[in-house]
Amino acid sequence: SKKIKIALLGNPNVGKTSIFNALTGSRQIVANWPGVTVEKRTGVMKLANHTVDVVDLPGTYTLGATSLDERIARDFLINERPDVALVIGDAVNLERSLYLLLQVLELRGDVVLAVNAIDEARKAGFEIDKHELSKQLGIPVVLTSAVTGEGIEELKNTLIKSARSSSHVHYLFTDEIEASLRNLSDRIKGNASLSAFDQRWLSIKLLERDKEVEKLTGISLDYDYSIEIAETRYKYIKRILSSSVKGKEKIGWNLS
Ligand code: GDP
Ligand code: K
Ligand code: MG
């Protein structure tokens, strides 16, 4: 069967490498990303007759490409087009994890969320409803613990099934921002050198005044919607979490 490529990403210290190890076992190579001293871990996951290439991307909070780690993660998603982006979330810091997840969803649709450290969440006394979370986000969600092994087999099966799902837009910005996004998409559409990129994603990045995308598109706006865009994401996350997490008042989650 066809070789599948999966990229792991998530905030720093959420258990990416631990999950990567659980998926690939000893079938892995550690090197550096080209030209930089950031560690690159690649490995192979075996499941039934499938052989899957897995890459452990550097930890990031956003995909803004303002740091080297962010740029490596973002460029990999754009240039290497993995079949699935596996976002590792932290069950005890899910808001922050979802903030990154939404940005991955803006970039590409084939996304799976692993809510890791579910053992710690249970200890802290709250419950995450993975079916509700999955319904709200429109993507598969698996609860995992790299420590107890919970959810690892389910995650492997979910990853194999998820390759080649289709892209969606999962939430909308204000009418004003959506109108700007349509305008920008129209401007970008005519540019053949940008055909490899998702137009909506490029447009969002232009409204956020992303320097890389400004260079890439040759478009630089004289307004900046990055605050409004961040607020929309956070509002959406709050709504999702209020329906899919029980007992979260016990741990006092903080935003940004
Ligand atoms: P990374 O920075 O995202 O690659 O995270 P690591 O895999 O290096 O893990 C960071 C820390 O969290 C380590 O001490 C792990 O042992 C711990 N850890 C990872 N996954 C879990 C988990 O599911 N449950 C618990 N309790 N700890 C975990
Ligand atoms: K941790
Ligand atoms: Mg790591």
Automatic annotation (TrEMBL):
Highest taxon above the source species: Bacteria
Binding, GTP: 10-17, 35-39, 56-59, 116-119
Domain FeoB-type G: 3-165
Residues the record lists as binding Mg(2+): N21, A22, T24, G25
Annotated compartments: Cell inner membrane
Family: Belongs to the TRAFAC class TrmE-Era-EngA-EngB-Septin-like GTPase superfamily. FeoB GTPase (TC 9.A.8) family.
Function, as annotated: Probable transporter of a GTP-driven Fe(2+) uptake system.
Protein name: Ferrous iron transport protein B
Organism: Mesotoga prima MesG1.Ag.4.2
Phylogenetic classification of the source organism: Bacteria, Thermotogati, Thermotogota, Thermotogae, Kosmotogales
Part of the whole protein covered: 10 to 265 of 649
